[in-house]
Write a structure and sequence with these properties.
The chain is of the alpha+beta class. The chain has helices spanning 8-19, 77-82, 85-106, 148-171, 191-208, 211-226, 228-234, 283-293, 296-299, 302-319, 329-337, 341-354, 372-381, 385-400; strands spanning 25-33, 43-53, 59-69, 117-121, 126-130, 245-247, 256-260, 266-271, 278-280. The chain has 2 domains: 8-69, Dihydrodipicolinate Reductase, domain 2 (2-Layer Sandwich); 89-114 and 138-400, Aminoglycoside 3'-phosphotransferase, Chain: A, domain 2.
């Protein structure tokens, strides 16, 4: 169902400007939902189909993605308004990503950094983007998660993203410092505090069902809840010693799309969904990505993967003629390690959602609210045997590093 404002005249005006063709005529316009329930909590995506005749007489059948915010009466709408996620993504597609893409193109990098924006309409808080499906971009399996080849492609992509943002910030110092200050864990905001506290309580509930885990970690986890968001905020804090850039902010399996060769091997990767792009340390993206998206044996190679991203970032900045101070690998690993608390939250509360295969209702409020349907959904997340194994592995590591103690 198309919004009433999305008429043939509206899309014709947008397409004429995008294709620079004042003679373009729209013949037909229709739509289908682009995502299923539970696949995207932040926005509503609709695939729109347009038949049009170009000025040269050729007729084309094209599809595009209409991206809108969730309805104002949706439970999560208030949260996303508080974090201004929609205006941030509009700004990313309209201004920041094109500038970052240009920086990379000038240096000879050819991989796409973004889906092209047909129109960014700030008055309606919507975007119409090119449809990546006809270009043979697709998501990897979020449940199977990523092997080493898929993982390294993302790390290479993030290196280009982070490097381009560093150069953009040098060229236009005011552009990225204002609209990109808030994160999931930002101080002074309440929405995600409620979400993460609810998720963390569900995690503790699971731990309490395992006597061995509960005896060692239950009390420590209970103590963390009180200061959960403060500890998390510290993991995003930066100071003058930290390398700083714009991060994607929500980089996980479903927010990257791959192209594959005829043998099924991934060849290129493209990021999507920039609602949580934030000015902070690049290792924030690494923690989020590692904790949500990697197969178990790949996650165990974390230190090596930080090293891989470090050298990819360093090489890219050299090509872009970066003249600033760049940390040593040892310093970069320390910057990664001191943000380890993200693993406490993301690996133990976010990842069970991201690989969920159960049949309980995935409504947003059921992720964190203590209602009967919410508790039923949350408890079912921890029935996944692989998630249980990961919890048994990660809790001793986090405890040994001191991240389960008050700090």
């Amino acid at each position: 169902m198309l919004p009433i404002w999305l008429t043939e005249d509206y899309i014709q005006t947008a397409l004429r400007a995008f294709y620079k063709d004042d003679q373009l005529q729209v013949i037909k316009l229709w739509a289908k939902p682009a995502t299923e329930k539970g696949e995207n909590f932040v926005g509503v995506m609709t695939r729109i189909y347009v038949d049009f005749e170009s000025g040269d007489g050729s007729v084309k059948n094209m599809s595009y993605i209409l991206k809108q915010g969730v309805p104002s009466d949706a439970p999560q709408a208030k949260i996303f308004k508080e974090y201004d996620v929609y205006n941030r993504e509009l700004e990313m597609y309209d201004v920041v990503l094109p500038k970052m893409s240009q920086i990379l193109e000038e240096a000879g990098f050819t991989d796409k950094l973004m889906a092209k924006a047909i129109i960014v309409d700030r008055s309606r808080t919507i975007m119409i983007l090119e449809d990546l499906a006809p270009l043979r971009y697709t998501n990897a399996d979020r449940v199977k998660q990523l092997d080493l080849t898929h993982t390294k492609l993302v790390l290479d992509m993030l290196a280009k993203f982070h490097a381009a943002a560093i150069i953009l910030n040098q060229r236009e110092p005011d552009l990225l410092r204002h609209n990109y200050a808030s994160h999931f864990f930002s101080r002074g905001k309440e929405g995600y505090g409620e979400v993460f506290a609810g998720l963390f309580r569900a995690f503790i509930r699971y731990v309490k069902t395992k006597p061995d885990l509960n005896s060692r970690y239950g009390a420590k986890l209970e103590n963390i809840v009180t200061n959960l968001m403060d500890y998390a905020a510290r993991s995003v804090d930066v100071d003058e010693k930290d390398l700083q850039t714009l991060v994607h902010g929500d980089c996980w399996t479903t927010n990257v799309m791959y192209q594959y060769d005829d043998e099924g091997n991934p060849t290129t990767v493209l990021p999507i969904d920039f609602q949580f792009s934030t000015w902070t340390s690049p290792v924030v993206d690494l923690h989020y990505f590692f904790s949500t998206s990697l197969q178990t044996d790949i996650k165990e190679r974390e230190t090596e993967l930080v090293q891989y991203h470090y050298y990819a970032l360093k090489r890219t900045l050299e090509v872009l003629n970066f003249k600033g101070v760049f940390p040593s690998l040892f310093e970069y690993q320390l910057q990664f390690e001191k943000r380890r608390f993200q693993s406490v939250i993301i690996a133990n509360t976010f990842q069970p959602i991201m690989v969920y295969e159960g049949c309980e209702d995935p409504d947003f409020v059921n992720l964190y609210q203590d209602t009967p349907s919410g508790i039923k959904f949350q408890d079912s997340m921890y029935e996944n045997k692989e998630i249980q194994r990961r919890i048994e592995t990660i809790l001793p590591i986090l405890d040994a590093k001191g991240f389960l103690d008050a700090h």
